[in-house]
Specification:
Elements (H helix, E strand, L loop, with lengths): L4 H13 L7 H16 L3 E7 L5 E6 L2 H13 L3 H8 L3 E3 L9 H10 L3 E9 L2 E10 L7 H21 L9 H25 L3 H14 L4 H114 L1
Antiparallel strand pairs: 1-2, 1-5, 3-4, 4-5
Amino acid sequence: MTIDRQVLAERVRELRATLAGPADLLTGLQRVTEATRAVVRVDGVGLTLAHEQGPPRWVAVSDAAMELLEQVQQDFNEGPCVVAYAEDRIVAVEDLGAADGWDQLAAVAAQLHVRGVLSVPVRLAGQPVGTLDVCASDPRVWSVEEVDAVAAFAAVTAELVRTGVELAIRELEVAQLRKALASRVWIEQAKGVLVATGGVPPEVAFEQLRARARSSQRRVVDLAREVVQEAQRARLAALAVDDARMRAAEARVQQGEVALHEGETVLARRTAALDRAQDAADERDRAADAREQAADERDRAADERNHRADARDRAADERDWAADERDRAADAQG
């Protein structure tokens, strides 16, 4: 896909002109994901950054599907994001469903309708500190222009990270960056979980974290990590429940369709039987009508014969009367 280089340059300049300070780091990182999605024209964008224990974790995503994709890669320790960070190289996958060696990830990606994936390392002080990842819902051959565009946004991400954690000196150890950044990321994510689940302002959510940490004699970052991981497990469980409900609903629909088809078949058979019975009744009615018509014809013929017999009787009566008259006249003359 062709990238509008002018638009790309403008968005990069805008992001660099508003490099976030420590308090606005996550906001700036979220802007990077939004700009990447708009310029490269992909379906999802995710950003991972290393934390104090090493492996990267997601810190900004464009949507829930991308969040789950990033989380699953972290949980299974496999996928383009993991390879891009571990080997410090760009990983372009045309079709995740056909990729070898990532069977667990491919199964989840199929449910999320994710196919093409591109992961570009985010480097700071010459070392990878995370990845900028984009995905497409269809298989996609990533062009050089698209790779360069994502790499440009990955570079801006590195600048945001450096400014956000106040690492002005390039010689500062990357491990220090990872630890400071990871703690903030975990705490910000935990605050977001408490805001979403408890309906409290971010300030109150942070105070709740601190209070819980003090009462359990734990570090705030450790408690924050636990809160986020519990929320992630709950999301995965909810997705599994939703999937089971969907399969059950589909099964009920299929059963309903089978029952409907059987009912239609029975109704068709009954209708055909009724049609045949009606045809037979009509045939019997036509036969009865024919018999009645024949009887009427016979009655008319009999009436006609009776009429002719009556006429003959009247003629005979008239002849007898005339004979009687002649006899009376003869008697009178004699």
